[in-house]
């Protein structure tokens, strides 16, 4: 009996490592999901689906050091919905942040260096004083948000960040599922997005929303990592 449970646990752990991961290869523009890795820069994990766990690594930005990808830039109107789709579902419990950075010119040659990123969307955790913690992003195939109406027109990187928190109780345990799409915002305004952060640099990995045991004791509150959302 004992060895049966041991085997079951081993198999379960294996399955959750291999089958449960995800990438974000598509955008959703005008209600249409784009083909995989066309408008999104292909990430190192396009085959393995393995997460980034080092928030200080260069790959924490767009996770594309090995693929050297190119992508096509897709137009999206300011004030309209923009979606980001996974290749399955956001299987793990956790939270989501979406960041954007404006390219000085053509986004094809923009790496996203510097303190240039602002947050446009987030899905946090829901707590109620220690009774329960739930994750609205868990199990959904993708996310959708409104491109801020006052966002200046131009070309941008849009970076998806889904943070899986199921084993985040030790440093480096949180799993980051990341990708960067390329969009051209049209019909924009004259807003000044901020606060601006550098990526990597935005996190140390010790934030209470990243280094966290979500199981026990049940967290009384949850602090979403990163700057406030800029909504224009
Ligand atoms: C909950 O709030 C306290 C007090 O502000 C803070 O110290 C703690 O880090 C928060 N916990 C989480 C998981 O965000
Ligand atoms: Cu996983």
From TrEMBL:
GO biological process: cellulose catabolic process
GO cellular component: extracellular region
Class of enzymatic activity (EC top level): oxidoreductase
Catalytic activity line of the entry: [(1->4)-beta-D-glucosyl]n+m + reduced acceptor + O2 = 4-dehydro-beta-D-glucosyl-[(1->4)-beta-D-glucosyl]n-1 + [(1->4)-beta-D-glucosyl]m + acceptor + H2O
EC number(s) stated in the UniProt entry for this protein: 1.14.99.56
Cofactor(s) demanded: Cu(2+)
Auxiliary Activity family 9 catalytic domain span: 21-222
GO-annotated molecular function: metal ion binding; monooxygenase activity
Keyword annotations from UniProtKB, A to Z: Carbohydrate metabolism, Cellulose degradation, Copper, Disulfide bond, Metal-binding, Monooxygenase, Oxidoreductase, Polysaccharide degradation, Secreted, Signal
Signal peptide: 1-20
InterPro entries xrefs: AA9 (IPR049892), AA9_LPMO (IPR005103)
Location in or out of the cell: Secreted
Similarity-based family: Belongs to the polysaccharide monooxygenase AA9 family.
Name of the protein in question: lytic cellulose monooxygenase (C4-dehydrogenating)
């Amino acid at each position: 009996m004992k060895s049966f449970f041991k085997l079951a646990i081993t198999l379960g752990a294996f399955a959750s490592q291999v089958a449960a991961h995800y990438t974000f290869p598509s955008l959703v523009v005008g209600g249409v999901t784009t083909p995989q890795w066309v408008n999104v820069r292909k990430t190192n994990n396009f085959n393995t689906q393995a997460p980034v766990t080092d928030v200080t690594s260069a790959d924490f930005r767009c996770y594309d050091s090995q693929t050297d990808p190119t992508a096509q830039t897709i137009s999206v109107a300011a004030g309209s919905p923009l979606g980001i789709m996974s290749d399955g579902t956001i299987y793990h419990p956790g939270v989501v942040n979406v960041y954007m950075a404006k390219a000085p010119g053509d986004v094809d040659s923009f790496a996203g260096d510097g303190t240039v990123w602002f947050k446009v969307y987030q899905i946090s955790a829901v707590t109620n004083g220690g009774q329960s913690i739930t994750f609205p992003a868990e199990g959904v195939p993708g996310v959708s948000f409104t491109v801020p109406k006052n966002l200046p027109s131009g070309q941008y990187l849009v970076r998806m960040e889904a943070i899986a928190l199921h084993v985040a109780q030790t440093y480096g345990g949180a799993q980051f599922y990341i990708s960067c799409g390329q969009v051209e915002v049209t019909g924009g305004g004259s807003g000044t997005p901020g606060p601006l952060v550098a990526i990597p640099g935005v996190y140390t990995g010790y934030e209470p929303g990243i280094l966290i045991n979500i199981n026990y004791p049940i967290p009384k509150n949850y602090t979403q990592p990163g700057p406030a959302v800029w909504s224009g």
